[in-house]
Design goal:
- By secondary structure, this protein is α+β, with helices and mostly antiparallel strands.
- The chain has three domains: 2-120 and 360-392, no CATH class; 123-133 and 281-355, no CATH class; 139-279, no CATH class.
- 31% of the residues lie in helices and 37% in strands.
- The protein has seven helices and 18 strands.
- Helix 2 (15-35) packs antiparallel against helix 4 (71-89), helix 4 packs antiparallel against helix 5 and helix 5 runs antiparallel to helix 7 (361-392).
- The longest helix is centred in the C-terminal third of the chain and has 32 residues, at 361-392.
- The two termini are 51 Å apart.
Length: 394
């Protein structure tokens, strides 16, 4: 049985496969580095390192073909290769204990890295002094927030991911939800755009929409920015159609650059539309008490900046103040808050929020690998000392 299993795992556990994967990883890193000339870091990560395949699209976007393995596929194959090699060559002995532990540590490291890429979520929480929030925002993703404006203390919100809007536009379809008495047809979706007010004398300009602020604004599609200090301006043009049929209510322009939501009325009920960064809501809240920003004398270079926040969680009887600063994050309910930056006028703080279920994997892997190497080194050192002593004995 063991012989058959080892024979079956032979091709998967091959050292040739390891070398091929490592070579493919080198090529992928080189190609991803060059790609950052025309794309920003997030786009390159998504296309090269956080994907199963790198796709080539024909001019015009008619079809796509996989042309090279992505980071997820290379990492997964390396993990399977290492597991197969470990199982195929495993034999228990004190002499090989260090090698076995080293392999286990590498397996934990690869599995943790793959889990981080698949499941980790990074977002930001921007707080001004005295402000309280129970959500963080993802600058890389957008959502269309549809809010019913009622007299109730809490207005219900339906969030439609930006990916859903883009997919609906590609399929020339509409988006519907059980909580909404209307359908949303996407007439335009722009990952990056330029909005310009239309001057009264400019008769050639085409309004972006028939209703709301978009009736006085023109929109132009832009290529996504590659520079890290520039941010895309996602926008969309949507049409509202009653779910039960009837006349269209027209089109509205929504954009992350617009300060106010766009409002309309349907069957006596008031609604608003807002395109915003995707939000991740928490079961607790953070309030900014004070923000400190120190600079080196005579310069504008940041020396230290920190945030004192109040953590409030009624469900777990938490109400305490926490200081967040460099290398001293706040960890709570699976979220880690790092001091990331601050508002340009020093009126608020920017906290990076990372949710990574496998964040402990690198620490565990390093300890297991270190222990394995220490055991292996000690074993050979003791053996060498014994042989040297025997050789010099009279």
């Amino acid at each position: 049985m063991k012989t058959a299993l080892r024979r079956l795992l032979g091709p998967v556990a091959s050292l040739h496969l390891t070398v091929i994967c490592l070579a493919a990883a080198l090529v992928l890193v080189f190609a991803g580095t060059l790609a950052q000339v025309n794309s920003n870091t997030f786009q390159v990560q998504q296309q090269y390192f956080q994907s199963w395949f790198i796709w080539w699209s024909a001019q015009g976007g008619g079809f796509s073909l996989p042309v090279f393995p992505g980071g997820h596929l290379i990492g997964a194959v390396l993990l399977v290769n290492l597991l197969a090699a470990h199982i195929r060559r495993f034999s228990w002995s004190r002499r090989k204990l260090g090698i076995q532990l080293t392999h286990i540590g590498l397996i934990i490291m690869l599995a943790g890295g793959l889990a981080t890429d698949l499941f980790a979520v990074s977002s930001y929480m921007r707080l001004r002094q005295g402000e309280t929030k129970n959500y963080s925002e993802d600058d890389a993703r957008t959502e269309l927030a549809v809010t019913e404006l009622s007299s109730a203390e809490i207005n219900p919100v339906t969030a439609i991911p930006g990916e859903t809007l883009a997919a609906a536009l590609a399929k020339d379809g509409s988006v519907s939800h059980a909580s909404l008495p209307f359908k949303i047809t996407v007439r335009g979706f722009y990952p990056n755009s330029d909005l310009q007010m239309i001057a009264q004398e400019d008769v050639s300009a085409v309004p972006a929409s028939s209703n709301g602020a978009g009736a006085r604004i023109s929109i132009k599609a832009l290529a996504r920015f590659a520079e890290m200090n520039k941010h895309d301006t996602p926008s969309a043009v949507v049409e509202i159609l009653p779910a039960k049929g009837g006349k269209s209510l027209g089109t509205w322009l929504v954009s992350v650059a617009m300060a106010q939501p766009q409002e309309f009325e349907l069957d006596g009920r008031h609604w608003s539309l807002e395109l915003r960064p995707a939000r991740y809501y928490k079961s607790y809240s953070l309030s900014l008490v004070t923000f400190t920003h120190e600079t080196y004398p005579g310069t504008e270079i940041a020396k230290n900046f920190s945030s004192k926040v109040t953590l409030a969680d009624a469900a777990h009887n938490e109400n305490r103040q926490v200081q967040i600063y460099m290398n001293h994050p706040l960890r709570y309910q699976g979220d880690t808050y790092y001091q990331s930056g601050f508002e340009p006028d020093n009126s608020g703080t920017v906290l990076q929020v990372v949710r990574n279920p496998s964040y402990q994997a690198p620490y565990i892997a390093c300890m297991v690998v270190a222990l394995g190497l220490l055991i292996q080194f000690t074993y050979h050192l003791v053996g060498f000392a014994r042989r040297a002593k025997a050789a010099t004995a009279p």
